[in-house]
UniProtKB/TrEMBL annotation:
The species this protein was found in: Streptomyces monashensis
Family in the record: Belongs to the peptidase A31 family.
Lineage: Bacteria, Bacillati, Actinomycetota, Actinomycetes, Kitasatosporales
Protein name: Hydrogenase maturation protease
InterPro entries the UniProt entry points to: Pept_HybD-like_dom_sf (IPR023430), Peptidase_A31 (IPR000671)
Domain of life: Bacteria
Keywords: Aspartyl protease, Hydrolase, Protease
A Pfam short name: HycI
NCBIfam families noted in UniProt: hydrog_prot
Length: 159
């Protein structure tokens, strides 16, 4: 198993708070160890699987629509939690992370370690900017993702 760590920020920066995943990836530049793959995706399952192919650890950063909504609220999800919480309508994308995880499992392409850091969002309208609540919570999200990356490298070093 490789020690490759991939961080994928899922979302569309042109759709307001849906851009939180890409914004978090940008905030990580210079904060994670060299060799960490930082990528942005629109969430299309086949492209997601290509991005994490061969990775030991994958950290996904995603916008989450919840009811009631608490914009800026952070969640850390396991694969099972993410599949349940992001299936169907919870995603801001046509095909959500739940479908991507189901496809990866069916194709036996789940990485050995996958964690999802999600932030509840409000405004995902085309042309909107990140809301104040999401912008304010972005440093905390980046801190959580950076900690997950450090933990992945520590686990890989212990092997």
């Amino acid at each position: 198993m490789s020690a490759r760590v991939v961080v994928i920020g899922v979302g569309n920066p042109l759709r307001g708070d849906d851009g939180v995943g890409p914004a978090a990836v940008e905030a990580l530049r210079g904060r994670v160890p060299d060799g960490t793959v930082l990528a942005v995706s629109d969430g299309e399952p086949a492209r997601m699987l290509d991005l994490w192919r061969g990775a030991d650890t994958v950290v996904v950063v995603e916008a989450l629509r919840a009811r009631p909504s608490r914009p800026g609220q952070l969640h850390t999800l396991t694969v099972a939690d993410a599949a349940a919480r992001t299936a169907g309508a919870a995603s801001t994308h046509a095909l959500g992370l739940g479908e991507c995880l189901a496809l990866a499992e069916a194709l036996d392409q789940l990485p050995s370690s996958l964690v999802v850091h999600a932030m509840e969002v409000a405004d995902v309208e085309l042309g909107a900017r990140l809301s104040e609540a999401v912008r304010s919570a972005l440093p905390g999200l980046a801190d959580r993702v950076a900690a997950s990356v450090r933990q992945a490298y520590e686990r890989n070093h212990e092997r």
